[in-house]
Amino acid sequence: MTTLASPLFEDRPQSFRHRTLHSFNGPVGSITATLAVTLLVGLLWVGPEFFAPSNIQIVGVSVAIPLIVAVLASFALLAGVVDLSIGSMVGFGAVIFNQLVATGLNPWLVAAITIGVGVVVGLTNAFVIVYFGAEPLAVTLGMLTLLRGLSQAIVVSAPPTTLIDPLYNVTQGALLGFPTLLLIGIGITLVAAGFIGKTRVGRKVQAVGGDHRAAARAGISVTKVRVIALVISAVGASIGGILYVGQLGSASNILGTGLEFQIYAALMIGGYSITRGGVGNPLGGLLGLLVVAGITNILNIQFFDPDYLDLIVALILLAAVLVDRFRGGDEFE
Which residues have a Cβ under 8 Å from the Cβ of 266 and sit 6 or more positions away? Predict the structure, then answer.
């Protein structure tokens, strides 16, 4: 109890620096090296065009929305809950937003409605998981199936085309040669990393995921933390759905299928733990997504069979898990 309470309730000048150095010597440092190797392979195999502005735009646009969804979903992971429904929530949010905007409603109003739906989904997950003590994987898997079924029921034919100029400009625009949406995603990641690593509230989230019984004894409301974390996760997915409509101009009933596995694989590569909360850093999640996106881009340019991507990502994921186990990184500190 003393060990847990110390970083939460005492202000120690070197604690944040110590945690930051520990993080970069641990999973974040490992995935940074992996990203450097990926970039080197891209340069040697593809050539200078791998770093061409047009290719950076392609990679950035492809990773930006999953990054935003991943950063917000990682709060639930840190709190000790795996939310498998984020992919279907992205699709359902996109379908709701697209269908309502197509009827002529104000896009800002519809965006607020879509985010409100995300809040309801997050609260529903939290109610069953937190208050009834149900297994998170089972609950969120059920929610995944429900939302996917609702998307299929709503879009029974070709979805309407919805072009919203301001949203399209954000999702497809560039600033200083980098995709605008990617820069926004990186900004959100940095804010989240500072929040988790530097604030007492962020440390409470990690404490709940690391050992919820000890956190409760330290006076932390485990219920409140996990409810808020699940709502943040669902809201992030609904925002992702809105952004996909802005990027694609429409929303099919299969949008977001499998996205949860792509995101969680990248988060695990970046140092998060699926089996235990309190472990991970948003910067590691960003780097993990960039590694997967870089490998995908290299294989696409070289016209490799897409099946090789799953193989390579699986091998990197297994390596990341093994390195983390040897390092003892699954322990909450």
Answer: 66, 70, 285, 288, 289, 291, 292
CB 171 within 8 A of CB 68: no
Quote the mean pLDDT of the chain. Answer: 85
> How far, in Å, are 30, 35, 295, 319, 324 from residue 316 at the CA level?
11, 11, 11, 5, 12
How many alpha carbons lie under 13 Å from residue 298 in its C-beta half-sphere? Answer: 23
Q: Kindly state the tokens that stand for 207.
A: 């404490």
Beta strand pairing call for 178-179 and 174-175: antiparallel
Would you state the pLDDT for residue 233? 96
Domain positions in the chain are 2-6+53-326
Q: Indicate the angle between helix axes 27-45 and 307-327, nearest 10 degrees.
A: 150
The one-letter amino acid code at 201 reads: V
Cα of 185 vs its chain's centroid, Å: 10
SS3 label, residue 270: coil
- Do the Cβ atoms of 296 and 313 come closer than 8 Å? no
Computed on alpha carbons and rounded to an integer, the radius of gyration of the chain in Å comes to 20
By the 8 A CB rule, do 237 and 73 touch?
A: yes
pLDDT at 330 over 50: no
In this structure, the number of other CB atoms found within 10 A of the CB of residue 270 comes to 30
Q: Which two tokens stand for residue 2?
A: 């003393």
Taking a C-beta distance cutoff of 8 angstroms, is the pair 83, 73 a contact?
yes
Q: Does domain 2-6+53-326 have CATH number 1.10.3470?
A: yes
Tens of pLDDT, residue by residue over 75-109, are 999 999 999 999 999 999 999 999 999 999 999 99
